[in-house]
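Box 3.1 A note on notation
Throughout this textbook, protein chains are presented in two layers. The first layer is the amino acid sequence; the second is a token string describing backbone geometry. Keep the layers aligned when reading.
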Amino acid sequence: MAQQNPASRAGPRTGGQTVMTLLLGVSVLAAAGSGAAALLLTHGSGWFSLVPPGPARPAAPGPAAAPAPSPAAAPTLARGAALVPPLPIPPQGRQATARRAADGQYYFDTSIGGGSGGVRMMFDTGASMVMLRAEDAARAGIAVAGLDYSYMIRTANGTADAALVTLDTLRVGEVTRWAIPALVSRPGKLPVSLLGQSFMSKLSGYRFERGELVLLGD
């Protein structure tokens, strides 16, 4: 009579034994502590192993709070201090001023070259050059007798012969200019000397204000 293999007598694993194995694994997991390990079960044998948990996932950052202002950053003002420093007053340039005369014109007392006498001249933007009466030119030290009167000029009294000269200096008020082209008329032909464009073009400008004409130097 053949002897039976002990393994054959054990017979197949029943459903009750499988359930018992699962319960045993759950009990071990509970004993290891909640959240401390993960339970891995293999089918059939009830084998399991504990796997260490991974690193904790960082929480999502919330909106950054605005930094509080530092007390040291707040500006401090001494008593009576001004918030804005005052602007510097620009220096006033050299000027010459004349009041409007009864005839509506503007007259300036001028000094020409090294002459001893002053020359009264009328402001005239329509004159292309400074024009001098022969009498005023002689007072300024110009030798009028030796001039070449080959230029023809038109005046309020008609036409007149004139000579071309260059004034070393022409001073009007505080304003001085050098090497000014000018015309000198024959004696008795020009009623008044004219302050024309050959001088005016060398200025920074001029303006009219409250009945006065102001010539602007530099």
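The helical segments are 6-10, 15-32, 134-139, 197-200. The first strand starts at residue 38 and ends at 41.
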